[in-house]
User: What shape does this take?
Amino acid sequence: MADEVKFIQADILRDYCSQLLQKVGVPEDHSRIVADSLVEADLTGVESHGVTRMAVYMKRLRNGGINPVLELKTVMDGPGTAVVDACHSIGQVTSYKVMEMAIEKAKKVGISFISVKNSDHFGAAGYFAKMALPHNMIGFSGTNGAARMAPWGGREPLFGTNPFAMAIPAGKQLPIVADMASCVVARGKIILANKKKQPIPLGWAITKDGEDTTDAQEALKGTLLPFGGPKGSAIAIIVETLTGILAGSLMSSQLVDMASNPSTKNPVSHYFGAIDIAAFGPVEEFKEKVDQMILSVKRCAKAKNVTEIFLPGEIEERKKQKRLKEGIPVPRVILDELKREGEACGIPYTLE
Assistant: This one.
């Protein structure tokens, strides 16, 4: 059945995906970065950017749409800035390495911002923003992608889902991690609904004729809608400017669909940055104030029928802890895809 799920332990799923990637030429250490980013998304409940993406990544790697071996070229370099050409390398590996660069630059000058061009789909933005947290830094990231969303009032896709993320360290409380697309919902959720042959809620997308729809397939042919109407549209425009335009690359409307064009290089652009809290004041004082803010939000008088107020990233962290114990619920349709990939690669299927 399309809605059947199996609970798979994170380490088993991570190792299996890593093995698949190695079979199509990805070095072992880099395969583990990709696999970990996908499994982390599934752990935190962001299934749209989890192992459901493996099939299309494998297809692109096999057909030359993505270069399996990382190659980064620094086009411009400054004390706190850089422009990096990813040479069509894997998006997650590119992003991991460039975020490390951003952290190192921030250690030296207090704040950094790096633009990346000629990359590929990088998965969940928050994965890279969170890399700054152990360094007592605020991390941020964002990306463009193939046009999926119309501007507010339009019915023609002009922008990618253009997600952005920010991670803020706290003291005794959980860090604040905001990771969201500029549309109502990530397109991956509609793709997953289509795979599972399930309807989608009204308000997620419209058809190519501009009509409301609950049909996932029609939604994929049409356009996503910006969250908050003009507000989401404005954020998509800002992310577009900070990615493709600032990097001197292509805009979303000039990119191709990665699934439909597996042999085509797709020059996606990203941005990454870090803010060293110590460059602005005592770190512990900052964290104490963040804790105070978090507690004030948690203790805020609740609206009717509300039992708890959540901080950005809090629900995701709770899901992660639960799924680390109980396993990740992977839909049957995705398990079947992973099994077929294993058969194609000559890898024993170890997920069930």
